[in-house]
Specification:
This protein has about 220 residues and is of the alpha+beta class. The protein is about 25% helix and about 25% strand.
Amino acid sequence: MMKKLDDKQISKVKEIFKEIGGWIICIVIAIILALLIKYFILTPTVVKQESMYPTLEEDQRLILSRIGRTFKKLPKRGDIITFEAPTETYRSRENTDISNPVAIYEEKDRNLFEKFNYYVLEIGKISYIKRVIGLPGEHVQIKNGKVYINEEELEEDYLQPGIVTDNSDGIFADIIVPEGTVFAMGDNRNSSVDCRAFGCIPLEKIEGKVLFRFWPLNEFGGVNK
């Protein structure tokens, strides 16, 4: 037969459960706060592409600001941003309305759990990291190996010497950037799949702006603009 607990023992068991409950509540609150900060304010990320070389190299760690997304504010020219990869990476001229040069995103049907994983935890989500070149209403042209904004050549000191900007793999070489979007390219122009190939990025698909690099430690700090 089981021995009946006396009042003192029952009180101690209650105290233990109360303490465990307190820890569980603290852990849950900490997780919720971490997720809120990650989604709305700041989040770390790892560079997994060579398209921003030499400004950024593979496996470097960055901190992104989510403030622009939270308050629906477009980034500025020169900002390095991350955004959700478009559904169609390369667009064909035959199937594209060049007067509406916006990247295509086909929304999938997702349940609540799948949306949480994809948009909050970002599991299974592919993102690109590029530099903002053109802003809404601007005339972006790529010609003679250079970039022109409203007919004026864009100074790009962040590019390696000798880098030529061509448009051999894309169709968006002479466009007006639509409202609510940006035109972005990688600094490593010859190894970057970007808006030249798939079109401008809508504000709602921009995930964050690079604030600073925290790894490796010998390159800790802001990134070249």
